[in-house]
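Teaching assistant here, posting this on the class forum so everyone can see the example we discussed in section. The complex has two components, and the goal was to see what a joint structure prediction looks like when all of them are supplied at once.
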Amino acid sequence: MADLPPDVLAKMQALQDGFGVRLRARLADMQQQCSLCRVTPAERIQFELLYRQLHSLSGSAGTFGFTALGVEARRIEDQLRVWLDDGSWAQQDLAPVAAALDALAASLPGAPPAA
Amino acid sequence: MSTTPTLQRILYVEDDPDIQLVARMALVRIGRFTVQVCSSGAEALAAAAEFNPDLLLLDVMMPEMDGMTTLAELRRLPGTRETPAVFMTARVNDGDVASYLELGAIGVIAKPFDAMQLAAKLRELWQTSGRSDG
């Protein structure tokens, strides 16, 4: 890494910064999607969309330096996967998932204090 | 075997735009590979013949056509019937990896990955699979 040209390192840093900037919007989308799942618990496609959002985040956050956030996203993703696999997704209380997503959003730099 | 002796051209299939950007950067600027990025399996199928890749680098979980289905479809095309493949995925338990290898993959890269090491990891998998230096 030390041998890399400065412009490559700068570009990598810019990509990391851009990911961080978009992270807040991504988490907001997931919070909204989780709310939708709670309003329409019979729609599996909404639940699967939330799962995919979490999967994408857990698979990418660590690459951009947000390791702890990615680990937590993976924990939530894995829980949703269990519910999808055993067919219990529509019966689950998603309040803890919503709370976990809120906590992730609150963990971002510059986030307002959690209510 | 239709593979070329060196690793130069990589057909990369990934639907996440952030991961696309950082992986492409790593492969092109650090690895000095020639890279064609596709956002879906369908795009990869359309691009494969003209691009003529040495290696297929495939995300597993993608909407509409996942990485495993994409590989199966690419295997039906004359130009990529025997092209080595590597999966990139967060699902890397023993059972998952075994299923990827059964499909003919030469290796798996776990997500999240270290962008700085991505090119080196691909070269390592390439060489481990019995091919010459990329």
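For the discussion questions: The mean pLDDT of chain B is 92. Chain B touches chain A through 18 residues (CB under 8 Å). Think about how each of these relates to the inputs above.
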